[in-house]
Backbone:
């Protein structure tokens, strides 16, 4: 499980995991893990420490909960954190101190910014349980922060406080450390942050697909979603209300248009019938007018041009050629 020694740099404006370290815990002496674009692939044989690395790094360094069932990906309580420090592999050791840490980075106004979060753990054979302390710092391990002294002995709590040199915070209570990590890295409400950690615990389980409870996973994922901003919700609600009004108006206009089209279909038939009837009346009237005009013209023609027999008659109707009606003899003219 060797890792590259080059120090990685952040590449985005969001916090991303850069490195992780395990020092003097279980069979790890001083191990570094380098992430690529915030991702880490652990590959190795069984019992090589892949699960142990997850156990002591994530999500432990996010919630600082030392309960064995939360540390162990399988949910077992058989091996608490104390066993990782003092066990049968080092029977001659009476006091052991170990460290686990995560390094994150992001680009802030064009410059890299770093954050290291970690925990110090101390166990004594004469005392049950584990003494623990936590830290948050802008320093980088192996650059301007060392977690062991010149003899490569892990630092005590007091020595770590001096090593932070005003560039970090030291916490004795897990709740204070958890709040500081949330405020610095996530900025979530407490309930949502707890739901996020629970989600990581669920997704970290080995053979997840064989033991998956879809309903429970759905509940956890829903709880881990960030709440919507009230202003955003209000804007969306107003938008949906406008859409509803527009839809109602469109439906009303569509009904009105349908009624108008039905009316036009009927009205067109009515207009066509009316125009046809008026056209027939006009045609009949024109026919009657033409016949009357022709009769009047014929009458006028008869008055202006009488028959020839009528033109040869004398006044009173006498025939000038009838017997007994002679011409008046012309008398002798004057002298």
Residues:
């Amino acid at each position: 499980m060797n890792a590259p020694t080059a120090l990685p740099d952040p590449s985005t404006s969001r916090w991303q995991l850069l490195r992780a370290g395990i020092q003097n815990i279980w069979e790890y002496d001083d191990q570094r893990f380098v992430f690529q674009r915030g991702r880490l692939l652990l590959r190795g044989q069984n019992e090589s420490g892949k699960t142990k690395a997850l156990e002591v790094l994530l999500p432990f360094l996010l919630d600082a909960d030392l309960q064995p069932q939360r540390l162990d990906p399988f949910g077992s309580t058989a091996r608490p954190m104390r066993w990782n420090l003092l066990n049968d592999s080092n029977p001659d050791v009476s006091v052991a101190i170990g460290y686990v840490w995560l390094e994150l980075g992001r680009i802030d106004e064009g410059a890299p910014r770093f954050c290291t979060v970690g925990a110090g753990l101390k166990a004594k054979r004469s005392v049950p349980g584990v003494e623990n302390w936590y830290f948050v710092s802008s320093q980088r391990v192996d650059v301007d922060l060392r977690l062991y002294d010149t003899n490569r002995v892990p630092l005590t709590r007091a020595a770590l406080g001096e090593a932070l040199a005003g560039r970090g915070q030291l916490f004795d209570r897990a709740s204070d450390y958890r709040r500081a990590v949330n405020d610095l890295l996530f900025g979530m409400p407490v309930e949502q942050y707890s739901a996020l950690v629970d989600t990581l615990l669920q997704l970290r389980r080995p053979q997840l697909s064989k033991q998956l409870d879809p309903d429970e996973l759905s509940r956890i994922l829903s709880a881990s979603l960030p709440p919507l901003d009230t202003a955003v919700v209000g804007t969306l609600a107003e938008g949906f209300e406008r859409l509803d009004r527009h839809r109602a108006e469109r439906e009303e206009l569509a009904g009105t248009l349908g009624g108008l089209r039905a009316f036009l279909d009927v009205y067109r038939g009515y207009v066509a019938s009316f125009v046809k009837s008026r056209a027939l009346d006009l045609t009949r009237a024109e026919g009657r007018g033409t016949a009357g005009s022709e009769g009047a013209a014929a009458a006028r023609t008869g008055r202006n041009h009488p028959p020839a027999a009528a033109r040869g008659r004398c006044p009173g109707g006498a025939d000038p050629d009838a017997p007994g009606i002679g011409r008046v003899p012309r008398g002798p003219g004057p002298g």
About this structure: DSSP finds ten helices and six strands in the chain.
